[in-house]
Specification:
Layout: H1 2-20, E1 30-36, E2 44-52, E3 55-64, H2 75-85, H3 89-103, H4 116-135, E4 141-143
């Protein structure tokens, strides 16, 4: 009887260990940033996440110009973009960041009409920042968002 119990226990342990290899890499605690390599239309997009307890607890997605001014703070740009596309940086950056936070990088991100170019950049930056968080590498990763 002891032998059967030992075999069952060993099989359970092997099954547990094999199951761990199928799980997605856990996110390591810390701050992680992915940034576009180049400026696009005068702006360089970035994502910064904070991971605590293996979960994303904060997401910042935005863009800055060469002087460090944040795109979602640019009221003139907001007015121009809103009138031509129906959305503006402060709206779509929060929308995409909120979806990443809610889905923890495990769910797809829905595109927002009028911000499809930023959606493509966001997808690439998100993949890179999640990869960094999975490795626990807090160095800034630069991403080619143009292609």
């Amino acid at each position: 009887m002891k032998r059967i119990a030992g075999i069952v226990l060993a099989l359970l342990m092997v099954g547990t260990l094999m199951g761990c290899g199928n799980e997605k890499t856990a996110l390591q605690d810390g701050y992680y940033t992915a940034q576009a390599m180049e400026y696009s239309h005068g702006w360089k997009e970035y994502i910064t996440i904070l991971v605590k307890g293996g979960s994303i607890i904060s997401v910042e997605y935005n863009a800055e110009n060469a002087s460090g001014f944040i795109k979602s703070w640019d009221n003139a740009y907001m007015q121009t973009m809103f009138h031509s596309t129906g959305t503006y940086p402060n709206q779509y950056t929060r929308y995409y960041a909120g979806q990443l936070l809610e889905g923890q990088g495990k769910e797809g991100i829905d595109a927002l009409s009028g911000a499809s170019s930023s959606y493509g950049s966001f997808q690439k930056l998100m993949a890179a920042v999640l990869e960094q968080a999975g490795k626990g590498d807090s160095s800034i990763v630069f991403v080619d968002t143009a292609n």
